[in-house]
Amino acid sequence: MNEFIQTLSLGGTGPSIAIKDTIDIAGYATTAASRALADTAPAAEHAEVVARLLAAGWRVVGKANMHELAFGMTGINDYTGTPQNPQDATRIPGGSSSGSAAAVGLKLADAALGTDTGGSIRGPAACCGVAGLKPTFGRVSRRGVAPRESSLDCVGPFAREMSTLVAVMQAITADFDMHAARAWQGGCKVGIVQADAMPEIGAAVARAADVAGCTAHALRLDGLSAAFDAGLAVINVETSRALGHLLETGKLGADLDARLRAAANTTAAQLDAAQHVRRQFTAAVDHALDNVDVLILPTLPALPITLDEARGGASVIAMSKLIRPFNLSGHPALSLPLPLAGSPLKAGLQIVGRKGQDEQVCAIAARFEAALAA
Fold first, then answer.
1. Where are the transmembrane segments (predicted)?
2. Is residue 315 annotated as a catalytic residue, yes or no?
3. Catalytic pick from 16, 34, 96, 240?
């Protein structure tokens, strides 16, 4: 069972939850699923989100597996094993929170926590057919979460249904309004972001707005492509700064070694340009949300590739082209399972809201969930 690095039983008799191995659990090492961190000392205290879950009666059932060092999109890990994609065992589970998404999809846990720096909750959620939320940047505590410093990374939940996801958010967020997150009052105005994706996925996004009874109009979100590139530059600089020293150990997987060495080549000029794009794109998203409740678009532009294709060297970086931009801007973004006509596999519907309005994103997602299940 590669979904867990370690199984546990901590806490109350409430719902079960898995915790990604970048999040501290007192008494257990936080290894980020890497041989280079295998000898790390056990955490002295729980991450704040874990302490909150335990205080709320949740039961922690394991440290979830992940893409090594949370720096990859496939979820393949030759050291700790690769979690199974619940929708199709021949396909990648997505990264980096692969074990969290897979554990929920396989019903090994009621919910899971992951982290999302460049799409690492929403991507695996879409691959594995579950719901996953990247909260507004800064809304959920990152105390006790690796890397210690990040301008992109967010802790967030996975669940099979929105009601459970909302319950996790209430537990881990000090000021989360559960009532607002469960009931969307009135109409629903959505902007459908023009996105380069498989025609079947684009059609499913438009259909979802229709069946949910939303007033929808297509819009162009300026700077989406530039924000993707800028997000890569920022994550490269910040990951290199936090983890570059591990290159000296000689214990990293080949893909991580190559990515970290490449990341170290990001220049100060590239980072400055990325921060300029960050300001522009954030303003563009804010402006797009002026006249609609949420933006919707595909989570991933295509269905996940197969494990064989990934191991054969197929590039996966474009998987994150529609999700990474919202790490740069900091807006809350949720991936909801999206049925595809004529396919047993579900894609992902991405729902993006105003900063701080995570409850509204959840409430509208619940509306889509109910409509798509009808």
1. none
2. no
3. 96
